Amino acid sequence: MASPTLVELTLPSPVNAVALVLHGGREHSFETAHPSQLTAVRMRPFARALQRRGSAAGLAVAALGYRFRGWNGAEESPVADARWALAELRDRHGDLPVILVGHSMGGRTALRVADDIAVAGVVALAPWLPPKEPVSQLAAKRILIAHGNLDFVTSPRASRHFADRARRAGADVTYVTVHGDNHAMLLRPGRWHRLVARTALDFARPL
Questions:
Q1: 89 — phi, psi (to 5°)?
Q2: Minimal CA–CA distance to 118: which of 91, 145, 136, 81?
Q3: Full residue range of the structural domain in which residue 124 is found
Q4: Spatial CA neighbour of 78 closest among 98, 88, 64
Q5: CATH no. for residue 47?
Q6: What's the number of domains the chain is made of?
Q7: In 3-state terms, the chain is what percent helix, strand and coil (to 5)?
Q8: C-alpha of 9 from chain center
């Protein structure tokens, strides 16, 4: 049976916080997820940006590998994997703040598990957010949602609507439009990478 994996890409000394990177996937698929798949490869530049900007501040970077490629309806496959990863990080590093950085399905997953006590903030990039996606778990959490205005895979409008609902639920939400980019985040990569690294470091600092 497939198992999730957690790879720690960098471990500064001391470790003061952890950025956990969650890649995208598919709506339905029980195919085994693999790090060579495009959804996982797409997040490697973000991990490197977090490493470059965060190492001096003690920000460790880890990447979650899901069991399956899909969300899979009520199974919500990556949600269980993300909760496992948060527990694993707690076992390895104690009660350090964790910043979740997720793209597409990974953004949805990050927002779902933000109720974990360790989560200091969520950076959701072009997240996949269906209309009835819950928001109550985000109360008092710090959230950045960033979406390219040329994205036709996931909906910027749905992201804005979700951000409004999350604010009403008590979350501290910032919404950023990345003009001139689409779902793959390849047209203006520097803009995305700087935004993610800067926000993750901000969320890692105590309020």
A1: -65, -35
A2: 91
A3: 5-204
A4: 64
A5: 3.40.50.1820
A6: 1
A7: 40, 25, 40
A8: 16
Q: What is the distance between the alpha carbons of residues 120 and 35, in angstroms, rounded to a whole number?
A: 26
**Cα–Cα dist 116/140, whole Å:** 12
Could you state, in chain order, the average pLDDT of each consecutive group of 10 residues for the chain (207 residues)? 91 96 98 96 97 96 98 98 98 97 98 98 98 97 98 98 98 98 97 98 87
Q: How many CB atoms lie within 10 A of CB 132?
A: 7
53: tokens are 């900007």
Closest by Cα among 52, 55, 50, 53 to 22: 50
CA–CA dist 138, 115 (Å, integer):
6
Which residue is listed with tokens 């490869």? 41
Distance CA 196, CA 167 (A): 20
